[in-house]
Write a structure and sequence with these properties.
Number of strands: 0
Order of helices and strands: HHHHHHHHHHHHHH
Structural class: mainly alpha
Number of helices: 14
Length: 242
């Protein structure tokens, strides 16, 4: 057998192993690894993850509808800072607030925040279908309307498809210093390679968001767990891509 043939077969075997590695069961494994990461500093991670929600809430107190749009942009950019924080904890075992701000790629972080507006637009479209015209008062002007909790939960969860596609873009921006479009492209590429485990995590995240109107603690407690699971998945994807 010639060397070139052996190399081709080796490459094919490696490719098959990479494809076979990502199954639905892999998603549960990522959740277990994410839980192990969360356990290293659970209270501090959860409190840090709450900051974007609290600050976005304060921004929404400003005049609508610009406050809503600004809060969605800020929220997406701020949530991205969880990636370098988790990366530092994974490497050192220690929580460091400063590690979240260790990247200098702030222009790309700010541009990535625009994806939060895109997710809000997706939610608004679903809200118009599910709730009707009252969605304008509810989502753009923050006025109380007669909306069932399940309707609101469905609106929250509707952003999940886009969230999954963009899951790893913050990691590429903040850990690899990439520009936004390249980071998004690679995130979509990672999704195509590992859509099965990501679907497991996505379903879990969607259930958490759907439950938010009933139990707000579902997002506060379990949201960081899903972020940790995504980080665990990213480390595996990164290792296979090298």
């Amino acid at each position: 057998m010639t060397t070139s043939v052996m190399q081709q077969q080796s490459a094919m075997t490696s490719g098959n192993k990479a494809k076979a590695a990502f199954t639905y069961a892999t998603g549960w494994q990522w959740l277990k690894e994410g839980f192990a990461l969360l356990r290293k500093s659970p209270v501090k991670i959860i409190l840090f993850a709450m900051l974007p929600m609290l600050l976005s809430g304060f921004i929404q107190l400003l005049p609508a509808p610009y406050s809503i749009i600004t809060s969605k942009w800020f929220g997406a950019a701020a949530v991205a800072l969880l990636w370098p924080l988790l990366h530092h904890i994974n490497l050192t075992g220690q929580f460091s607030f400063k590690s979240a701000f260790s990247s200098g790629n702030w222009s790309s972080v700010a541009l990535f925040g625009l994806t939060g507006i895109a997710m809000a637009a997706m939610q608004f479209g679903v809200a118009m279908l599910v709730i009707g015209p009252d969605a304008i008062d509810l989502l753009l002007h923050m006025k109380q309307t007669e909306v069932a909790r399940w309707q609101l939960g469905l609106v929250f969860a509707s952003a999940m498809p886009l969230m999954l596609l963009l899951s790893f873009a913050p990691a590429r921006i903040l850990l690899e210093n990439q520009r936004v479009m390249k980071a998004i492209s690679e995130s979509i590429h990672f999704f195509t390679k590992a859509w099965k485990p990501l679907l497991i995590i996505g379903i879990g995240y969607a259930l958490i968001l759907f439950a938010a109107p009933y139990i707000i603690l579902s997002v506060i407690i379990f949201g960081p767990l899903m972020s940790c699971a995504l980080y665990a998945g990213y480390t595996h994807l990164l290792a296979l891509s090298k």
